[in-house]
Amino acid sequence: MNDETLTTATDWVARGDSVALATVVRTYRSAPRPIGSVFAVSSSGEMAGSVSGGCVEGDIYGAAQAMFADNTSAPRLIHYGISDDLALEVGLACGGELWVSLDHFRARPVLRRGAIATIFNGDQNGEGLVFDADSGALTGTLAGDLRTIAEQTIADAVAREESIALDLEGELVLFVESIHPAPRVIVVGAVDTAEALCRMTKTLGWRTAIVDPRAKFATPERIPSADVILTSWPDKAYPELALEAADHLVVLTHDPKIDDPAISLALNLDVGYVGALGSRRTQEKRNARLRESGNTDEQIGRIYGPVGLDIGAHSPAETAVAILAEIIGYRSGRGGQPLKHTTGRIHPSEETAS
Length: 354
Hints:
This protein is α/β, with parallel strands linked by helices.
């Protein structure tokens, strides 16, 4: 939704309109939209996107039109409390709070992976930093201690692939928007479970790829849900895919000639999640071969094997559910326990009420 809204806002500017952009920078309790959601308003009266599912867009529309009339240049941070009754109207069980920044829309830096940090309130209101994780370039006008804090928070946001808001002294708010491609699951082995896993992964809006040098197995007919199919060995396929630490690798072939180099190379490339199918005995034998090939015990300890959560999965579809659930848990830092046996928030959040 954000990409469509930003594209629409760019089109409005191109035709000569002034455009205001509202962004959710903080939430508390059952906020209707997640951090980073955007809502655009043109000087012609058009709207695109959403920050609350209809709760506060009317007020933001009025504030945007006032900003155009007053020619206000500095961004502002607006706090909204959503009552329980109003929350029910937009499908929430209870109310919450959200903090929305309102500013003139500007062309955004082109980033594949990185972060944009902005400070709200105080002497440096509206100043920020832009970090390009691919090139390592850091640019921007934020200065002093705030710059140091922003740099640290940017590193955290990029590593977690999550946008972050921090409350600072003097009623300052630092918002760091994480920019990254959709998560990617790379499956080594074009077996029946691979299609089930790719199909379910696509329902999350994630990217998928298949690697298998056995061309008779790795075909679009057998794995129609894969975005990319490479019929090459891992040492050739990984550079072509630009395999990186943020990827999730799942090895399914049961063939040591393919499995071992696929896992060993991924560990050496510091891929964050490396899962391998197979019995516990298979894992032991494979781990011994990996040690012999030069992988360290620390690296081998990072392998999720046998892959997947223990839910009694048997069929390819059930196995895919177990694997994908484990990947989601890995990404969120959760262990995959039944919610009735856990305490604390169901949905992870860094936000607290002021």
